[in-house]
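Below is how a single chain appears once it has passed through the pipeline. First comes the sequence as given, then the structure the pipeline wrote out for it. We keep one example in the README because the format questions we get most often are answered faster by looking than by reading.
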Amino acid sequence: MTLRDRAVAADAPPLPPLPQLPPLAAFLEPQPRLGMVLGVAFSPGGLLFPYHVGVGYTLKRAGVITDETPLAGSSAGSIVATILAAGADEDAVLEATDRLVDDVRAGTKLNPALRKELRRMLPPDAAERCSGGRLTLMHQRVLPWPRAVAADSFADADDLIDCICASCNWPFFFSRWPLVWCRGGLAVDGFFALPRTQFGCPQIADDTLRVISLPKVEVEGGDALVLQPERSNDLELPVPASEWFSWAVEPAPDLGAVHALGRAHAEAWLNDRF
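Resulting structure:
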């Protein structure tokens, strides 16, 4: 007679149920990582950031990105990480993207064009939502002394927008000047704040999914934790890689198609792993 049988026979208080152990195979075979991706980081990518938007909101709908998921980004990736952390509506983001690209095509530099759309798009409590470890934005301070900066707390909307713009500051592409002001210093793009093998995507948790918008970039981490065009056969590009790269500096003729590809790649990545 087992201890449980004896307790029942003696009319003792019922014992708690025995824990259900997973099968032995669970300890021997790789398991799906759904629920184990503790952080998501978005890479630089210039004007390809609609790809990141498609990926990010698809991961959010799938439950990989939740209100508690730590997010991070550098350069274009900082924009998408911020709008996800702040809870911005995807349709509003796409409308803002269209206006921003129209301004750029009309000759406006990215710095003022982006600042205008961020002020219009971000909710009033965006700085509060993005603080406390929810969001990490990378930039490289150059003056008065060089150091990598990982901003994860924001005083107000202006401070948050300054950190985004510092992270996006690829010299002479983002602004008319090589450096931009941020928190009392002069800064350049977040790409320069991290080792090349991270490609602007900091390790913000034990498991960090790196979302890379550019192909042919070597990134540390196994395939399970990297989502990148041409990383696998189901993540193909519809155009040659050289043309895709050119859309990082000149807007793609169809931004909707770039966004749709991000969605499709995220869905393929999810289907492959979960």
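Residues 255-273 form the longest helix (19 residues).

See the next section for the split statistics.
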